[in-house]
Backbone:
């Protein structure tokens, strides 16, 4: 009798766990656990990370099979964000008496200012996700996840951004009106959201016709709305900075994208390049190149302050709105990293067309974005993570992630003189690179 699918998955899980355990033993590191002292999963090398991905894929499929169709459709996973949001909003991970590793629900309530009943219900729900534990009845202690929340501010800011900005746009649960004076309270209003935006503005490509706009009752883009609140703007910037340095998003992948050494004395422009991390990485590895980072005025100020002094003669900053004509003419490469996914095709085309007046024959545009896989070409677990980004862009900006067919059509629509030269997906990178050339109309 042939092995069942569940048996195949169990065997695959066991085989790869054995490989991971052998490697951690060889490296003399503690095994992964939920203990408060445990660190994040140790990513040693590509082989071990590949084994980890096999385990994640297989356990995801096995879990779905064990749930069955009804269980999959009715899983109450949306409730998880309620407890996680409350933990971050009220600082529950940090609401332990000084010097103590354990606390009662009442002590946490007293320090956080949230009622004891709320604290008990929220934390016991979070404990089912292994965030906090209850070693003895009525006594709360940290797990590795809750300890990370207590000690890592960027993680808390990321969760706060998801819970306070994106979740209302997706699920239709909006917060009380934002104020720079008060961000407390659990009083939420039911607002319209992403699906309602589809009904209200069918087929719209406007960035202000999103679930975010309905949930937060604003007619501004996300960036404009957040800029009106220093707290929200700071949280968003910190969250994105933290996220963009996570596994698979390392700046070093840019080194594999082009034959940079062939651009002798070349000029590289990073359009919407934030604080200049990409250009700093390239500048340290290619001393003959010069770099220009473009972004909004307030971002440019911060970028200049953060630039390493030894690079200030080769990395410069320039205020620029990427919907305006590109002011740096004749550069060799123009980089767009994680820019176009914020925008619908209508606006992405405008960004690409704004480059054209500056492009010389043979200039390259380097796109560094998610490239959605062909349906079914990857495991559902891996594909779900990428397509979840697509849903996030939809709810937040009315933007989109794109597969290669979408990318090809986008460049054709922007201008037929754009032509794709190559596509690469570096090992371990979540983002792909699309190398696009430019040929003038005369050639």
Residues:
């Amino acid at each position: 009798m042939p092995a069942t699918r569940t048996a195949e998955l169990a065997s695959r899980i066991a085989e790869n766990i054995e490989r991971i355990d052998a490697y951690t033993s060889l490296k003399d590191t503690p095994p992964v656990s939920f203990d408060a002292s445990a660190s994040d999963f140790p990513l040693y090398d590509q082989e071990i990370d590949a084994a980890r991905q096999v385990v994640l894929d297989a356990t995801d499929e096995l879990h779905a099979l064990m749930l069955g169709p009804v269980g999959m459709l009715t899983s109450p996973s949306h409730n998880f964000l309620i407890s996680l949001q409350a933990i971050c909003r009220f600082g529950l991970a940090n609401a332990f008496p000084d010097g103590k590793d354990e606390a009662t629900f009442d002590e946490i309530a007293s320090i956080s200012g949230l009622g004891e009943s709320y604290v008990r219900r929220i934390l016991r729900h979070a404990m089912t996700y292994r965030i906090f534990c209850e070693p003895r009845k009525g006594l709360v202690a940290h797990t590795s996840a809750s300890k990370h929340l207590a000690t890592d501010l960027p993680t808390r800011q990321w969760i706060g951004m998801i819970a306070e900005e994106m979740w209302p746009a997706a699920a239709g649960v909006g917060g009380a009106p934002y104020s720079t004076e008060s961000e407390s309270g659990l009083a939420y209003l039911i607002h319209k959201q992403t699906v309602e935006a589809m009904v209200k503005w069918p087929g719209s490509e406007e960035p202000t016709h999103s679930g975010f706009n309905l949930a937060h009752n604003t007619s501004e883009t996300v960036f404009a709305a957040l800029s009106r609140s220093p707290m929200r703007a700071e949280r968003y910037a910190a969250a994105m900075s933290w996220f963009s340095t996570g596994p698979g998003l390392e700046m070093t992948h840019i080194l594999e994208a082009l034959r940079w050494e062939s651009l002798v004395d070349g000029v590289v422009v990073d359009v919407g390049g934030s604080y200049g991390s990409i250009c700093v990485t390239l500048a340290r590895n290619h001393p003959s190149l010069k770099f220009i980072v473009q972004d909004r005025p307030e971002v440019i100020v911060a970028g200049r302050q953060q630039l390493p002094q030894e690079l200030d003669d080769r990395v410069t900053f320039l205020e620029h709105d990427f919907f305006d004509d590109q002011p740096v003419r004749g550069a060799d490469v123009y980089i767009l990293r994680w820019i176009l996914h914020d925008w619908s095709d209508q606006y992405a085309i405008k960004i690409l067309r704004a480059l054209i007046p500056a492009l010389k024959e043979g200039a390259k545009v380097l796109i560094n974005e998610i490239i959605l896989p062909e349906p079914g070409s990857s495991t559902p677990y891996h594909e779900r993570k990428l397509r979840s980004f697509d849903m996030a862009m939809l709810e937040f900006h009315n933007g989109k992630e794109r597969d290669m067919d979408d990318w090809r059509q986008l460049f054709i629509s922007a201008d037929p003189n754009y032509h794709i030269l190559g596509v690469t997906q570096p090992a371990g990178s979540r983002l792909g690179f699309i190398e696009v050339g430019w040929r003038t109309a005369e050639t």
